[in-house]
Amino acid sequence: SPGEFYQLDFEMSFVTQEDVFTVLEPVLAGVFNEFTPEGWKITDGAFPRIPYADAMRDYGSDKPDLRNPLIIKDVTDAFRDSGFGLFAKIAASGGQIRAIPAPGAGDRPRGFFDKLNTWARESGAGGLGYIIFEAEGGKGPIAKNLEAERVESIREICGLKAGDAVFFAAGKGDEVTKFSGVVRTKVATELDLIEKNAFRFCWVVDFPMFELNEETGKVDFSHNPFSMPQGGLDALNTQDPLTINAYQYDIVCNGVELSSGAIRNHLPEVMLRAFEIAGYGPEVVEERFGGMLNAFRYGAPPHGGAAPGVDRIVMLLADEPNIREVILFPLNQSGEDLMMEAPAPVEPARLKELHLALDLPKPKPAVTK
Fold first, then answer.
1. Which residues are bridge partners to 73 per DSSP?
2. Other Cβ atoms within 10 Å of 85 Cβ, number
3. pLDDT in tens, 82-99
4. pLDDT tens profile 220-230
5. Of 19, 35, 103, 257, which is most buried with the most CB atoms under 10 A?
């Protein structure tokens, strides 16, 4: 949403990541306890810490909604060299088959599964395969072409029983990971499994410092380039960059990211080396961030913090799905404040005072028939 936003921003000196968590958790829990209706459940005590890799593996998202009890499972090996050709080919080509459990769905009519398959196609996927588990074994198109022991292996991996079902997302890389997360949400919603009247917080930690740019094939920063890499300069000099995590963290509530934060990089030699790995020479860093580097050279304490978004907190407390409904001064999609009629034309004399010159696009000529 364009326009103003409000955040509770704080930075602290001589702190660890755990210190930041200890300061922020009671503040957020206190706000939600004060403004939430009586009887609602709110995460008590220390919030769960979920490494980024685990969040993507188990929830298909780096903003996991912990009200949803479903855990995604990797069942690629169950389909490798199997009789179900489509998934066997995906496994052989380096892809992944991810299973989304659906407890209790085995008793649903065929139309339930057809509706979800149609939804998946409309969402851009090839479809949404499934297996229904009965006392005598698996049922459905996939189970017919998959060896019984493999069907049983999938059931055990997912912790399911007779009367349950499982859906599958198959493909490669981030695409299948993210789609499995969308399926997890859809299945839990359709089965009415998402916990009601609850705010469930968690920290997502250990974000990767670097990632591989798919367009260029080169290493690039993954999130915040000014975060401290775990392992410091030694890690930057000795590890594969794609294995280095950063002291970066997000706080998430009910699948909504409320804040990003980090232990900041305060060492010039670490900053220069991190940017070098991402393809930026020291001259580029000096030109773009010379002020910060000079401050670090004079000496800066280890420091870190976070900035929870007030608008997002209010959105959750007000039970509004759209943040535009709670923004204090909302703008339209053109960035205009309709109440204040801004922006508005500015007199040339005012522009001259500020040494501003306008270079606006010329209006297109009217089309005549």
1. 99
2. 10
3. 999 999 999 999 999 999
4. 999 899 999 99
5. 103
